[in-house]
Amino acid sequence: MTHPKALIADIQRFSLHDGPGIRTTVFFKGCPLNCAWCHNPECISFAPETLFYPDRCVGCGGCAEGCFSDAKVLCGKEYTPDELMEEIRRDLSYYGEDGGVTFSGGEPLGQRDFLLEMLLRCRKEGIRTAVETSLYIFDEEVFRNTDLILADLKIWDDGLHRSFTGVSVEPIKENFLRLGALSTPVRGATPVIPEIDQGIEEISRFLYGIENVREYVLLPYHPIGTKKAEALGKKQRVFSVPTKEFMKEIQRNAFIR
Ligand code: SF4
Ligand code: SF4
Known about the structure:
TIM Barrel, two-stranded antiparallel ribbon, eight-stranded mixed beta sheet, single chain, 257 residues, 22% strand, binds iron/sulfur cluster, alpha/beta
């Protein structure tokens, strides 16, 4: 039987922010959204790409043999399920009670057959999984076979959502409601960007009404993606980093379990 391959942007070990415990995060390449603040702009295209950091280039002229100074970095490597399982198994010793693997991106559901294969293999081996998704795509089989869904609702207003992410928010809201019919726990999140009227009160009220959304978190924006976007030859807008006071104020008005 042939198994699907996937294009993976990166594998990060000892992740502490991609779900409970210590995790291995697998970043899939490709996303149907194009968020103006994306932390991982190298994960938006479904094709391999080269990032170029001119400040690291020593002008050695050896590009054809591969860059030794990380000035040119190829993003996107194909993995078979066996190869990726091998990478995951290397980290088993530190998962402990809560940790495991988070499939993130990009949008892991953009390569769903491979994702499902990995979820089934992890479950068979007793490895807990989380899927971090834009929820623009709904896939019941995938969502039933993971232990946790990490999903954002970024902006309430459809016009604003379209202009800052490139797609309508309506399918995402609908998919959150469909998730409510499953028993898989969900952590909802909103990246907080002070310049955008995101409607966080409405978002939090909406998510509060969905029983399996066990947690809702507000994540302060950080311009972490701008350097990577530049290295891809793209320009990413820089927003303001919310202050502690700003975060406290919006938290005060949000419905949080
Ligand atoms: S190999 Fe790397 S450091 Fe050398 S010229 Fe090419 S990009 Fe620059
Ligand atoms: S959904 Fe996530 S990965 Fe996709 S463009 Fe937006 S921030 Fe980036």
